[in-house]
Amino acid sequence: AQGERAAAIQAMDWAQLRDSVASCRACGLCDGRQRTVFGVGHEQAHWMIIGEAPGEQEDLQGEPFVGQAGKLLDNMLRALGLTRGGAEAVQQVFIANTLKCRPPRNRNPEPAELAQCLPYLQRQIELVKPRIILALGRFAVQTLLQRSEAIGRLRGQVHDYQGIPVVVSYHPAYLLRNLPDKARAWEDLCLAQAVYRRQLGE
Ligand code: URA
């Protein structure tokens, strides 16, 4: 049944995928959520940013990274000339999480929850076909790359997800508590931009 569900999700278009996430009851997180958080941005974005899971604000608003960590992420993206959309005509970024529902009291995602939610993220990546993925925090990294090392060990290199380059960095919520690592996160963004430019042949 698990394989059948994943196969069904792999065949969905955007509208079907949105509906499926909105009505998902595949794990216990559905009982505590206010809203599902599908993701936001352009459906053909060149950059895909992948975080962990909705927090309180995201759960209330239905949009990823709208709380404090999100403000930091937006600032970091803006420094690269990237925007999640809004009034701007060009939307270069799609932002999603490994989990589409908020874990109670923002506890860590559990392996079973990550496994149930992964087909949604995989399909989102397939549909967007980003030129580069920025994976923020250990859960995004574990989920995409199947690597369990600390971020500090995996950053600074270019990884691969199904032919798409993946750059790894600290989660913005972590950076809010560990300001000295902000400089490292900035290096990671610069690496990502260099990889992106190479992808475009610049
Ligand atoms: N942290 C995340 O990983 N994702 C969000 O959407 C908000 C905070």
Automatic annotation (TrEMBL):
GO function terms (MF aspect): uracil DNA N-glycosylase activity
Enzyme class: hydrolase
Reactions accelerated catalytically: Hydrolyzes single-stranded DNA or mismatched double-stranded DNA and polynucleotides, releasing free uracil
EC number in record: 3.2.2.27
Entry annotated with the keyword Iron-sulfur: yes
UniProt KW keywords: 4Fe-4S, DNA damage, DNA repair, Glycosidase, Hydrolase, Iron, Iron-sulfur, Metal-binding
The Uracil-DNA glycosylase-like domain, residue ranges: 38-190
Protein family per UniProt: Belongs to the uracil-DNA glycosylase (UDG) superfamily. Type 4 (UDGa) family.
Name under which the protein is recorded: Type-4 uracil-DNA glycosylase
Species whose genome carries this gene: Roseateles flavus
Residues of the full protein shown: 114 to 315 of 319
